[in-house]
Amino acid sequence: MPFLDKLKLWADERPHHTAVVVGSSRLTWAELRDAATDLLDARATTVLAEQNSVPFIERYVAAVAGTRRCAVLDPAWPGPMVEEVAARVQDSTTVTDSQLLDGDPASTFLIGLTSGTTSIPKAFARSRRSWQVSFDASIEFFGLEQDDRTLAPGPLSASLNLYALSECLYAGASFHTLDTFDVGDAHAAISHDGITRLVLAPTMLRLLSERGLAGDVDASGIRSIVSAGSKLDARTLEAARRWAPNAVIYEYYGASELSFVSGTRLAAGEPLDIGGTGIGRPFPGVDVRILDDAGNELEHGQHGNISVRSGMVSNGYLWGDDGQALRCLDGWYTVGDQGYLDHGTLHILGRRADMIITAGKNVYPHEVELALASVPGIESAVAAGAPDDIRGQRVVAGIVPAYGAVTATQLRTGLDGLLPRDKWPLQYFVMAELPMTDRGKVSRKVLLDWIKNHDPRVQPLG
Question: To which CATH superfamily is domain 355-460 assigned?
């Protein structure tokens, strides 16, 4: 049971308390229950591809009642892609239940979409039981309370924000979001709605923190910040701590197909592992091992497949699985992310396909990027392996300065002590912007194409 039985409970106990807020629109628990009940129909599968809105939340709640299931698509996708995915996930089966209730825990609750190498995203299924287990674990780990007011300012089509909405409905805590992301609107929500908890990606956290400091936006009432998507860099953490001095900061690693894997809790003033790859200890209810491709457990400190065993793992793919996207190694599941365990802490190195082999040495661009992002004066960094006649590949890096000019000497000095010298980039490039795919994802391949074609967006750094 993901959250509907709990939603009915909150509507009975606290009918006039605020349940959800989207921009200037809001619904009480009773209003959300009644609106979703009025939207119930006989479709087994509902496909939503919409911007954030109160009607979106109402339709989402109705779409998972009973044994129904929902697929949430990114409204920014091209129209033909939305139509193709919608046609694939539609189910002609009808359902007869007419109440806002949770269905069989083993039944499919959500169809998730994740980008792949093909033009059509891969689709996987999550059961109601897996989400309930996830809620219980995340509420325990993040310390979510009923009196919390959570702001997740990003799009609800993104799994981070959709999960935050569902988690709050399960926990009985009010959920806030925006029609579209805007720094000023987010600051207004924090000031006027008494936001106590933020759920957002590191890039959004940096924007809110730095502009909040510049604009004297009071964030002292924020008790916790949950960040995911990439590891926090030193600049973002320092800005967040100055802006929200009373907040406990959580960051975690997970995958759509695996749910939560590991996380860390940083109390106010607690130091960050600057430039490091560590991302905390296993999540409650999650066992983590590092396995080789044959399923053999590796010793602590050895690199291999990050593999998990938990009740949160998805049911697998509906389409798009090439046999490598989600693998089961004797009961342990992996999406191919590489890492190692060190005294119980999980370290993330990245996908094996991204690994750079230079002069016989394995270098993961993720660890290079984390180190570079921790160098003062660096806004962001992208590392990749360029062809090299002698080494096979050589490590190159593109950087976006935070302010002013940056020199190669400054970068090398900043990396000293953060990254082994044999993993340092041999060439640096200043980027006018981040290399992005058509879908808006940072791409190492695009960076290499820019370098190869002497694109004016990258300039060699002497």
Answer: ANL, C-terminal domain (3.30.300.30)
Q: What is the 8-class DSSP label of residue 422?
A: G
- Kindly report the CATH number that applies to the domain delimited by 4-348: 3.40.50.12780
Separation of CA 258 from chain center? 12
Q: Where does CATH 3.40.50.12780 sit in the chain? A: 4-348
Question: Tens of pLDDT along the chain (462 residues)?
Answer: 588 999 999 999 999 999 999 999 999 999 999 999 999 988 899 999 999 999 999 999 999 999 899 999 999 888 888 889 999 988 777 787 778 888 889 999 899 887 644 468 889 999 999 999 999 999 999 999 999 999 999 999 999 999 999 999 999 999 999 999 999 999 999 999 999 999 998 889 999 999 999 999 999 999 999 998 777 877 888 899 999 999 999 999 998 889 999 999 999 878 766 667 888 999 999 999 999 999 999 998 899 999 999 999 998 888 877 766 789 988 999 999 999 999 999 999 988 888 999 988 889 998 999 899 888 889 889 999 999 888 899 999 999 998 878 888 999 999 998 899 999 999 999 999 989 876 667 889 999 999 999 999 999 986
The set of residues, in sequence order, having a beta carbon less than 8 Å from that of 42 and lying 6+ positions away, is 94, 95, 96
Q: Which residues contact 88 (CB under 8 A, 6 or more apart)?
A: 120, 123, 318, 319
